[in-house]
Design a protein that fits this description.
Strand order of the largest sheet: 3-2-1-4-5
CATH superfamily: Glutaredoxin
Oligomer: single chain
Helix content: 25-40%
Radius of gyration: 15 Å
Strand content: 15-25%
């Protein structure tokens, strides 16, 4: 992947709906969300947040794309649970898009250390985002970014498994007119 230029790589990976990130970001700005593994309660919390943000995304003229490491059928079931079945989903079990966007993998303490336990308790028990079967890479962290015309204009890269984007701050970025 290091040899492929960024713009070329954006055009190389089609979504579940047959569109690439290059296609989408040339059409309108895209909120690209990189999920951790599908069994992660923090991942499920992000999906619930995205579900509640859907009207705000539309209002701001943002498309939503979700990058995940699951098999397409498993992802479809999980996204449907959060009424996100119509978004552009990118199945990336080999983590090529994660690497392209430099979404880091966490250390054991960043993924499941004591600092994560309280957040995990709140997310799992208090908010009801129960974990599922762990996915391919439990060390993969998440990210959210806004891609416009092939350029990253705002981003949040998680520093640990519980680190969630500040959606208001991320969505407040200035977007050039299309």
């Amino acid at each position: 992947m290091d040899q492929i230029p960024f713009q070329e790589a954006l055009a190389a990976f089609p979504s579940s709906r047959g569109r690439t990130l290059a296609d989408l970001s040339n059409e309108a700005p895209v909120l690209v969300v990189f999920l951790r593994h599908g069994g992660c309660p923090f991942c499920r919390e992000v999906l619930a947040q995205l579900q509640s943000l859907s009207a705000e995304l539309t209002k701001r003229g943002l498309q939503l794309a979700i990058v995940h490491m699951m098999e397409p059928q498993q992802a479809s079931q999980l996204l449907a649970r959060y009424q996100l079945q119509d978004v552009h989903a990118f199945s990336d079990p080999e983590r090529k898009l994660y690497e392209l966007f430099q979404v880091k993998r966490g250390t054991l303490s960043e993924v499941a250390g004591p600092a994560i336990w309280w957040s995990g308790f709140k997310t799992t028990i208090l908010s009801g985002h129960l974990p599922g079967i762990p996915g391919k890479d439990v060390q993969q962290l998440g990210a959210a970014l806004i891609l416009d015309k092939g350029q990253i204009v705002a981003s949040h890269f998680s520093q640990n498994s519980a680190d969630q984007p500040d959606w208001d701050q991320l969505l407040a970025c200035e977007l050039p007119p299309h």
